[in-house]
Amino acid sequence: MDSLTQAVLGASVTVAVMGRRTSFGKAALIGAIAGTLPDLDVVIDHGDDLLNMVRHRAESHSLFFLALLSPLLGWLTNWWLQRKAPPGTPGHAGRWTLAWLLVLITHVGIDAMTSYGTQFFQPFTDHAYAVGSMFIIDPLYTVPLIVGLVWSGLRARKGKAWGAPNAWALVLSCVYLLWSVAAQQHVRTVAHKSLEAQDIHNAQLWVYASPFNTVLWRVLAVTPTHSHEGFYSLLDQDPHIPLTATERGQAYLERWADVPHVQRMLRFTQGPVRMEVVDGRVLLTDLRMGQEPHYSFVFDLGTPEELDAGKVAQVRRLKATLRADFEGQSLWQRLKGKPAPAGGE
User: Fold this and answer.
1) In terms of C-beta distances under 8 Å and separation of at least 24 residues, what long-range contacts does 125-131 make, across chains too?
2) Do residues 99 and 208 share a domain?
3) Shared-domain flag, residues 196 and 84
């Protein structure tokens, strides 16, 4: 998820765990820092843009490493706050450890709800888990957490009982996550029927939340030769999902299957990629994030001659050109269930 959401979630969790054992402001600030800590791995350069992508959300999001780190961070936090405390003031190292652990776990958990991929079982496996039921930015998830946190903060300043607004916001955020998964499974059922109706067989199916909501969903079905894309709103009256087919470059994927960068991308995405040669350059595209023909992650691997010779130069990511319309319709129009023009294969 985005940094604001992670900071707010971290602050909310820490405030809930610490209660009145420390001030509201200290708990919220430390929680916000804890909530953004795992994402600092973006400053690490692994050698090229593709490696930076597949190594993001790896060791820094490992439940094993975070569990080992939490007691140290809890002890350091308690030590720092106790330095100037009056003698005899009880410490709360155990509570701070619990707060750090829960914040780091919730950070990893909410990241796994997006389509990017989170390797939270490192170092035992580099499998990237991605539910895809949440977009990376979703105001309906973040705003209630902000409201609950601010409301509790205002009550704390007035000396009133302040725990309830923050606690209810956390409960509401969890309910929203469950809703997203339920909605995704419903769309998956509809998508399976649409695949059968359009004679698309032996396809891997993914269903992803579209930008900023959990009402409009992107359906991606991948066969060995093509990717099939369509959109379905929960407000659509027609359960049929028109799907548009695009070639995946099967011949290129087979030709350069032994290239390490191609293998890394396939392992990280678990399948939905495209390979093509454009203007003499070999492009490798992650089909999970974005929509046809604009994607967030497109990598230039070099020339065909370089790949044939096993010489992959510095891989660079092309500038993303994302689009906010759906076959000529705005996100809001399509979300409301306005029928889209019929697609084709």
Assistant:
1) 126/58, 126/267, 128/54, 128/57, 128/268, 128/269, 128/270, 130/288, 131/181, 131/184
2) no
3) no
Nearest to 117 by CA among 180, 206, 204: 206
Q: Which two tokens stand for residue 20?
A: 């009145």
Q: Does one domain contain both 199 and 318?
A: yes
Q: What six digits make up the tokens of 231?
A: 């959109």
Name the token pair of 289: 């994030």
Residue type, 160: K
User: In angstroms, how far is CA 220 from the centroid of its own chain?
Assistant: 17
Mean pLDDT of 45-56: 92
Question: Are the beta carbons of 236 and 264 closer than 8 angstroms?
Answer: no
> What is the domain range of residue 71?
3-130
Residue 112 is which amino acid?
Answer: A
Percent of the chain with pLDDT over 70: 94
Let me know whether 85 and 221 are in one domain: no
Q: Residue 147 corresponds to which tokens in the numbers above?
A: 């409201």
Q: Across residues 35-63, what is the average pLDDT?
A: 93
Q: What share of the chain is helix, strand, coil (3-state, %, to 5)?
A: 50, 15, 35
52 with 190, same domain: the answer is no
- pLDDT at residue number 344: 40
Helix (H, G, I), strand (E, B) or coil at 133: coil
User: Buried b / exposed e across 8-27, counting CB within 10 Å, b at 16+?
Assistant: bbbbbbbbbbbeeebebebb
Q: How many domains does the chain have?
A: 2
123 and 229 co-located in one domain: no
Which one of 66, 97, 130 terminates a domain?
130
Query: What is the pLDDT, as a whole number, of residue 345?
Result: 38
Give the number of other Cβ atoms within 10 Å of residue 91's Cβ. Answer: 14
Are 228 and 303 in the same domain? Answer: yes
